[in-house]
């Protein structure tokens, strides 16, 4: 009986602690949407976001901000993170894109790209 109650207490304690362990994206990243991207890389998910939301304006071949290639995007990575993730605040510049219409999950992909070392 004693062994049984000890086991019971251990199970109880473990399950109480487990229920307080917030390992979900909503808690970690904020925003209501459950984003599917968890390890962002340029080729993995960022390219399609940039192609549809940035390249229409940032596409001059030879320009420093030609975002149609990895090199172009990577070369301006700090400015991009500031404009998109930080909405331009820390560099004191306007948010990008100007329409400010990226979804929380799209912004999170930029954030993850930075956290994962700007992988190609
Ligand atoms: C409707 C056109 C348009 C779209 C779409 C757009 N931009 Fe821009 N972007 C501009 C213009 C115009 C400038 C120059 C004025 C300025 O600096 O705010 C600029 C400047 C920038 C700069 C600063 C230039 C540099 O090389 O440091 C960055 C970084 C940038 N945009 C990133 C982005 C990203 C990332 C996206 C997509 C998520 C995007 N932009 C979408 C028009 C656009």
Task: Describe this protein's structure.
By secondary structure, the chain is mainly alpha-helical. It has a domain at 35-115. 51% of the residues lie in helices and 0% in strands. It is built from six helices and no strands. It has helices spanning 2-19, 25-29, 42-53, 70-75, 77-84, 104-115. Helix 3 packs across helix 6 (104-115). The protein is elongated, with a radius of gyration of 21 Å. The mean pLDDT is 84. The structure holds heme C (HEC). Heme C (HEC) is lined by residues 50, 53-54, 56-58, 64-65, 76, 79-80, 83-84, 93-94, 96-98.
Outline of this structure?
The chain is mainly α. The chain has a domain at 35-115.
Low-confidence segments, ≥5 residues, pLDDT <50? none
Mean pLDDT value: 84
With helices defined by DSSP (H or I, 4 residues minimum), what is the helix count? Answer: 6
Radius of gyration: 21 Å
Strand percentage: under 5%
Distance between the termini: 59 Å
- Indicate the percent of residues in helices: 40-55%
Largest sheet: none
Query: How many β strands by DSSP?
Result: 0
Element-level helix/strand string: HHHHHH
Structural class: mainly alpha
What binds here, in terms of ligands, is: heme C
- Based on Cα principal axes, name the global outline: elongated
How are the SSEs placed, and which strands pair?
Elements: H1 2-19, H2 25-29, H3 42-53, H4 70-75, H5 77-84, H6 104-115
Helix pairs in contact: 3-6
This protein binds heme C.
